[in-house]
């Protein structure tokens, strides 16, 4: 299974927002830090805002920050929202399936079990969990992010 870049970017955005602890983060900062297209990140930030995960502040001094506690956001819910298709094999999709072994094939059942286990792990992992090593990550990404800053809410 391979997740899309969109899912990867969405999770990175949520991690950075979590680690910056309420401070506004700009798309430009994230794009520069990770070497990702700003246009792709703008789409992710916008959509995460529409879904209620981010508070997006427009304008010259704008940016984004978490709109809900990181402990309440699971990786599984983000993956489900950002991935169009979690069908590992053709037989997972009743509309496009052409396999004559549907329902009797052990391979399809095994893949379904594996996909369920994968999602179960993601559902038990929060954005707070994947952001727990805050200091180390921030120092690696950008030393200036690791410095304590005054917290302002706009």
Summarize the structure.
With 154 residues, this protein is mainly alpha-helical. 51% of the residues lie in helices and 5% in strands. The protein has one domain: Arc Repressor Mutant, subunit A (Orthogonal Bundle).
Main features:
elongated, about 150 residues, Arc Repressor Mutant, subunit A, about 5% strand, two-stranded antiparallel ribbon, about 50% helix, 2 strands, mainly alpha
**CATH architecture grouping:** Orthogonal Bundle
Number of alpha- plus pi-helical segments: 8
Mean pLDDT: 87
Radius of gyration: 18 Å
* Number of strand segments: 2
Give the low-confidence spans: none
Q: Element order, helices and strands? A: HHHEEHHHHH
The percentage of residues in β strands lies in 5-15%
The percent of residues in helical segments reads 40-55%
How many discrete structural domains? 1
Describe the structure.
This protein is mainly alpha-helical and 154 residues long. The chain has one domain: Orthogonal Bundle (Arc Repressor Mutant, subunit A). The chain has a two-stranded antiparallel ribbon. The N and C termini lie far apart (40 Å). The mean pLDDT is 87.
């Amino acid at each position: 299974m391979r997740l899309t870049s969109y899912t990867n970017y969405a999770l990175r955005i949520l991690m950075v927002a979590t680690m910056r602890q309420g401070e506004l983060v700009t798309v430009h900062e994230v794009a520069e830090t990770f070497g990702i297209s700003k246009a792709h990140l703008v789409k992710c930030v916008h959509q995460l805002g529409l879904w209620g995960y981010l508070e997006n502040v427009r304008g010259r001094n704008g940016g984004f920050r978490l709109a809900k506690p990181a402990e309440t956001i699971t990786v599984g819910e983000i993956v489900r929202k950002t991935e169009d298709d979690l069908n590992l094999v053709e037989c997972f999709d009743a509309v496009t399936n052409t396999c004559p072994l549907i329902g009797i094939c052990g391979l399809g059942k095994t893949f379904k079990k594996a996909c369920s286990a994968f999602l179960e792990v993601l559902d038990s992992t929060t954005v707070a969990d994947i952001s727990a090593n805050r200091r180390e990550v921030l120092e690696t990404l950008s030393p200036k992010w690791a410095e304590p800053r005054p917290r302002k809410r706009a």
